[in-house]
Amino acid sequence: MQNPLPPLNALGAFEAAARHLSFTKAAKEFDVLQPAISRHIAALENDLGTTLFIRKKPKLELTSDGETLLTAVSSGFGQIAHAANIIRQRNSTQSFVVATSLGFAGCFLMSRLSDFNSCYPDADLELVTSDLYRKYNPREFDVAIVLAEKKNIPGRDVRLLFREEMIAVCAPDYLRERELLSDEDLAKERLLYLHEPNHLEDWNTFFSDSAATAPPSTASNRYPLIRPICKPH
Q1: Rounded distance, CA 180 to CA 129, Å?
Q2: Residue 72: C-alpha distances to residues 50, 52, 112 (Å)
């Protein structure tokens, strides 16, 4: 059987008093008289069978039990506030939340936002980016666009958009200075690679059907770190 919670009003008064280390400031925050806060704290201490504050001037001090309770109450109130904010945002406007990787958002979705806005002028679109799709909370988005090896993900309605194709690319100026006509030519270069936790292919995969061997490469898990390397110096 779940243990009963202390009175919620008393917990709210305690959190404010502990945050300010002052019953008076807590009373101002709740727009009540200071004795009302004192009564809530006294009731809470009686319920828990312990002392939560050391009454000293000019400020209060938390006891060990008070610090333990403050940690739990602050965490709980923080989670409630976060959930309430999500609910308010979803119900205040017609919003559409898309979760995807930073690279896909920057290199694919952003250039297509104008089309979405034209089709849905009254909708609010929010992009949530993460390179670890397994950490996406399905309650916090409407659709997720992910790179995944499995066609079926338990508990998800999965639809294939397109398959990944790996090709070698370089800047036109770089190509004019070098002869890159074969895999052997490419294997002589220092190659760049975007490494993502759920990325399925790398340069070893690219060279797997070639007589050439994949050369050393420079990898990063963030597009912003790869792009400066590609720029000419």
Answers
A1: 35
A2: 16, 14, 44
Torsion of the alpha carbons at 215, 219, 224 and 225, rounded to the nearest 10 = -90
Could you give the domains of the chain?
8-90 (1.10.10.10), 93-145 (3.40.190.10), 172-230 (no CATH)
Q: Is the pLDDT of residue 210 over 70?
A: yes
Q: In 27-115, at which residue ranges do the beta strands (DSSP E only) sit?
A: 53-54, 61-62, 95-100
**Tell me, what's the pLDDT at 231?**
58
Single pTM value for the model: 0.44
In a 3-state reduction of DSSP, which class is residue 88? helix
How confident is the model at residue 41, as a pLDDT? 94
Kindly tell me if the per-residue pLDDT of 233 is higher than 60.
no
